[in-house]
Specification:
CATH superfamily of the largest domain: Bira Bifunctional Protein, Domain 2
Number of strands: 16
Number of helices: 15
Distance between the termini: 41 Å
Number of domains: 2
Structural class: alpha+beta
CATH class of the largest domain: Alpha Beta
Bound molecules: histidyl-adenosine monophosphate
């Protein structure tokens, strides 16, 4: 019996070359906007001590309660004690751990960091919701001012604009007050639901016990109906939070950033205080927010640091790609092959090896058929690769010191001197189109 075919684990996917061009394009936009605004790149481990997420994100959030991928460092033992580590479900807690660990409070404040990479959540896979996905993430740590909130949102807005999807999205914004404001509100919400629990759907009844704020963005109709006469979070905000929110909105107006105030927006992570925001595609709403974030002033202290404010956001790259595809965006693709080198016979093959290498070193994207196939089938292959030019070298040509240059689109070919092949190709392609990437020309441009 044939063995079952191996497949990617549920909720994960291969990033195939045709999608990779989108990812590369997004990373470019992210790096560009990050550099412009003085953010520095940071990378944290893919897994961390699980307590960092439990304490930071909150033990009763969906992310921690249901979605952490645990990692055990003990291989093959019967030890059934709780695993010590978890794959990162997001960056913020890890970046704040790093800020504390490396004494970044000694640096000029605020410290502005960004990260790009995979995150892991053991969620039920569905459209736009994966178990491994990529985020780009920005944080401003160590200083609190409403102008920083507005400037951070502007970076996200600019990136979405660069990617030509901003007009498909709508910025939702709210202020959820201080931890004390929320504490008082949660008590009021619990009181309001006394005697009404039975009318809540199962999941929301549980939420009422573990994380009542999550009721506010419940998708359940019954819950939403009950919430209509419930106390609102807004009523519990202190004057400082209200004034702060007003100022953030004023600054957003000044920067020309469109937004929609949304008093129901609370976000699913416990570390937030005051400003929270999300970019939604209005056709799918909160279900598939492309990106979101907010202020997390208590987080650094929860992770063992001193009282230090912070604000940040993360954007899902798979959801960003989806939006770009919906908008018909085609990122420029530099993978186009310019030249195909076809050859026949052992002498020609040897000569072609150095010809291919010379072309590549000159910045010409070149592939070569170095097998034994006939010239005709090599030409068919060149056609399939969609190359612009083919160079053909047979036994005869080697003897005569010539080579055939074929323009694939025009369907025309001519014989030229072998030694002139590289300059002839360079001339046809044009100096400015040569791919002569040199590391020293790109100091500071990271990979990945
Ligand atoms: P988040 O809202 O949990 O926030 O995630 C941010 C974005 O990551 C979402 O808007 C979504 O695009 C993407 N995302 C989340 N889960 C999945 C999934 N299962 N599959 C695909 N995409 C997903 C955070 O992660 C916070 N750390 C943001 C932040 C940074 N707040 C302050 N600083």
């Amino acid at each position: 019996m044939a063995e079952a075919q191996f497949r990617t684990p549920k909720g994960t996917h291969d990033l195939l070359p045709e999608d990779h061009v989108f990812m590369t394009y997004i990373k470019k936009a992210v790096r560009h906007r990050a550099r412009q605004a003085g953010y520095k790149r940071i990378e944290t481990p893919l897994f961390e001590n699980r307590a960092i997420f439990e304490r930071g994100i909150g033990a009763h959030t969906d992310i921690v309660e249901k979605e952490l991928f645990m990692v055990s460092s003990k291989h093959g033992t019967d030890d059934d004690s709780q695993p010590e580590f978890a794959l990162r479900p997001e960056f913020t807690a890890s970046i704040c751990r790093s800020y504390v660990e490396h004494g970044m409070q000694q640096l000029p404040q605020p410290v502005e960091l960004y990260a790009i990479g995979p995150c892991f959540r053991h969620d039920r896979p569905q459209k736009g919701r994966y178990r491994q996905f990529n985020q780009f993430n920005f944080e401003i740590i160590g200083l609190k001012d409403a102008s920083l909130d507005a400037q951070l949102i502007q970076v996200l807005s600019r990136i979405l604009e660069d990617l030509k999807i901003l007009d498909r999205l709508c910025l939702q914004i709210n202020n959820i007050g201080t931890a004390e404001n929320r504490g008082a509100y949660v008590e009021a919400l619990k009181d309001y639901f006394i005697g009404k629990e039975r009318n809540l759907p199962d999941l929301d009844r549980k939420r009422l016990e573990t994380n009542p704020l999550r009721l506010l963005d419940s998708k359940e109709e019954d819950t939403q109906i009950l919430l209509k006469s419930a106390p609102t979070l807004e009523q519990f905000l202190n004057d400082e939070s209200k004034a702060y929110h007003e100022t953030v909105l004023e600054y957003l107006d000044e920067l020309g950033i469109a937004y929609q105030p949304n008093p129901g927006l609370v976000r699913g992570l416990d570390y937030y205080t005051q400003t929270v925001f999300e970019y939604w595609d209005e056709s799918t709403g909160a279900q598939n927010a492309v990106g979101g974030g907010g202020r997390y002033d208590p987080l650094i202290e929860l992770l063992g640091g001193s009282n230090t404010p912070g604000i940040g956001f993360a954007c899902g790259m798979e959801r960003t790609v989806w939006q770009m595809k919906q908008a018909g965006i085609k990122p420029p693709n530099k993978d186009q092959v310019d030249v195909f080198v076809a050859q026949l016979g052992p002498e020609a093959k040897k000569t072609c090896l150095s010809l291919i290498s010379q072309l590549r070193d000159s910045g010409v994207h070149t592939i070569g058929a170095l097998g034994e196939a006939s010239l005709k089938s090599q030409m068919r292959l060149a056609d399939k690769f969609g190359v612009r030019y083919t160079l053909l070298l047979g036994q005869m040509e080697v003897k005569e010191g010539v080579i055939i240059l074929r323009d694939m689109a025009a369907g025309k070919q001519k014989q030229i001197k072998f030694d002139t092949a590289v300059p002839a190709i360079i001339k046809l392609i044009g100096d400015k189109n040569l791919d002569t990437y040199m590391l020293k020309d790109h100091m500071g441009e990271e990979d990945g």
